[in-house]
Write the structure tokens for this entry.
Amino acid sequence: MALYSEKVMDHFRNPRNVGVIEDADGIGEVGNPVCGDIMKIYLKINDEKIIEDVKFETFGCGSAIASSSMATELIKGQAVADALKLTNKAVTEALDGLPTHKIHCSVLAEEAIKKAVKDYYDKNGIEYDPSIFPADHDCEHCCGN
Ligand code: FES
């Protein structure tokens, strides 16, 4: 079996939603201190709290790029509250799997989206339960290499 699924290769070669939203309503940036990869997510959110647009910049490995691309596709057009429920497992499943040692790359996507939503909540004075947001990246589930 190939190491990477066709979907991973497709999203790596033709990533969707790459770029910057200049007037983003929420921005989330996370980095993996071990491999040094960085992911940044930009959200444009309307008055109904729907994610109208989402873009990403990822300086990282192919799995991180494919994960960002898939994650942005999954949350585009969704309610902000639903985007918060996106897990790295869902991203990985949508990509038809990632090699075990690359699962942490999809964690970056989940965390960057959560951080961008938190930024949106903070900027707009929207109350939330802080426990739904992870503390800054802990390296526990991250690359052990
Ligand atoms: Fe660093 Fe994939 S995110 S190796």
Summary: Strands lie at 26-31, 38-45, 51-59. The mean pLDDT is 92.
